[in-house]
Amino acid sequence: MSTDYQRAGRLRVNDNAPLGAYELTTPQKLMIFVLSMALFGLANIILEIIPDISIGPFDFSVSYLVFVPLTMAALFSPFWVALGAPLGEIIFTDLLMGDFSGLAEVEGYLQMFLAIYIAGSYIRNPKSRPQVAIGALLVVIIDKFLSAVVDLAKVWIGVEDAEFVDGLPESMLLLEGIGFGIDILMSGILFGVLPAIWLVPALHGKIEPLMGMRPRVPGEPIPGQAPLSGTFIIAVIVLSIASFFFAFLEAWDLNAGTFELEFLEQYGMSFLWVSVIALVVTLVIAIVLFRVAQKRDVRNTKESVQ
C-alpha cells in the first residue's frame, strides 16, 4: 500500500486479513450508503417522468436504471451499496410520493439487496467489460426471478387471481416469461449493460480517491463482498423466503403501515421536486459530515506520526 494513502489516514488495513485486503472506515461506509441511496432514488424519480411504451399487448417499461447501483457496487462496496440503493427507492419515490406499501415494501427491498450484492461481488475487475455486462444482467435476473416466483406462488396457492392479457394465451408461466424477457431487454441491456460497460471502466480509479478509497485491483479481496460459503447460500435462501413472506402479507390483507395518499395524482409531476429537494439535502448533510470525519482522521494520523 502506498505511503500517500497511509499519510491521508483514509485506508484502514487489517493485519490479519489476506494480502492486499483493506477495510473501509465507518465514515466511508456511511457515505457509500447515503450516496447509493440518493443516486438510486434520483434514478427512480427520473423514471417517473419517462412514459412507458406499449406495442400491442406488450408493455415495454423500465423497472429501474440498473447501471446506477451497479456502477457504485463495482467501484465501492457491494454490501453498503446494496443496503442503501433499494432504501433510496422506498424513501424518495414511494414514501415521499404517498405511495408506500408498508411491510410489503420489504419484499422488493430484500430482492434488490440480494441482486445488487451478488452482482457487485461478481465484478472482480471493473475494467473487464464482460464482467460488468454479466453483473448488470445478474441484477435483473435475480430480482425479477424472485419476483416472478412470488407472483406464480400467489396464483398457484390461490391468494390472488391470475391477470391475463388480451391477445395472449392464458398461461401464467408464459406471461411471466414474456415479462421477464422484456425486463432483461429494457432494464438489463438498454439501461444496464450498455451504459455500465462504458461507465464503470471510465470511472474506475477516478472517483474512489474522492472517497478516500484505493481503486479496486483485480484479484484483490473486495471490501463488503459476498462470501463464497455455504453460510452465505443459506442466508440468501432465508432472505428470499422472507421476501416471499412479506409479499404474502399484502395478498392476505395483513399488511401494516400502508401509506397511499397519491401525491403525484393530486399535485401533478411537479411534486417530484419535493423528493429531489429532500434527496439533495440528505446528500449535502452526508458530504459535510464525511468531510469533517476525513479531516479529523487526517489530523489524528499526523499527530500519531509526529
From TrEMBL:
InterPro entries in the record, alphabetically? DUF8171
Entry annotated with the keyword Flavoprotein: no
Which residues are listed as membrane-spanning?
30-50, 62-83, 103-120, 132-157, 177-205, 226-249, 269-290
Transmembrane: present as a keyword of the record? yes
Query: DUF8171 domain: from which residue to which, for each copy?
Result: 31-296
What keywords would UniProt list here? Answer: Membrane, Transmembrane, Transmembrane helix
Q: What is this protein called?
A: DUF8171 domain-containing protein
